[in-house]
Amino acid sequence: MTIIYFILILSVIIVLHELGHLITAKYFHVYCKEFAIGMGPTIFKKQFKETTFAIRLLPLGGFVSMAGEEGVEDENIPFERTLKGIAWWKQIIIMAAGAIMNVLLAWVLFIGVTAVQGKVMLPSEPVIANFSENSVAKEKGFEIGDRIIKISNAKETIEPKTFDEVSEYLGYFPKEESTFTLQRGNETITVNATPRYNEEQDRYLMGFTAKANIKEISALESIPYGTSKMVEGSTAIFRALGKLIRGIGLENLSGPVGIYQITAETTQNGLLPVFSLIALLSLNIGIFNLLPLPVLDGGRIFLTLIEKISGRKLSEKVETIIMMIGVVLLVLLMVFATWQDLLRLF
Asked: Most exposed among 18, 66, 70, 241, judged by the fewest C-beta atoms under 10 Å?
């Protein structure tokens, strides 16, 4: 069942992404030869006007073949009906449409899940309310009521406004000693502490929590609160990307193996967590696809803008080299992420 859920979740996200490309390409009269659900040999197909809609054997993702793309035959197609034969801004819309569909899916699901839950957990203040059993924080002298006003190590310093920021910081530095600056009444104290591995939860913990801040909401209020969740998720992704560029959090990268593990855990907890996972994955895929890296939609948008600004087209040879570099980088990233997944697994 986990395999089925895993395939369905990724397929929904990817097919919707490709559907975004198809809808906008059709709108701008770009010739689309095929829209396929799945990969590999075709097991069913039906012709709708000029486009073949197909279901392929391997239920993993899908694709849309647009005239003007590399590897798509377009010899008998008028140039003005190819991807490169339309205005540059139309090309950008088509290329961005897949990611936009992913973000829209995430937005709808965040709102839907919030509406069904009927309540939201608002950000808590960075004030210690409880200690867990065998708490490192308690052993090191933290006390209930302490306000965390600063955390620092050799790589990062934050002044948290919410407890979520404390949790995020500890997630990036689970094994490193940090200096905590605490406000205790009228005095300010500092405490050095390192999270301890918790075998039951399979993670490193400081052993303290904040007071939960839960609010009951109406169905109408789920729209702004669901939107806020999506915005928070997006900013967290951009913060993570910024840290990855600096070499922080590389061990937290996940590939297909990691996503499979998360799917296995999530599907044990009911439908709402599954929809939340789909929203989070769709948001990640949408944002990642817009990064200015060759092969990704964002890279193709970047090249289109370069051509527009420079006033000349890139040669096919240069474009092929850039795309090959992008493929190599993407493969290396996937190999590294999968290696991190395997290290966590074993």
From this structure: 70
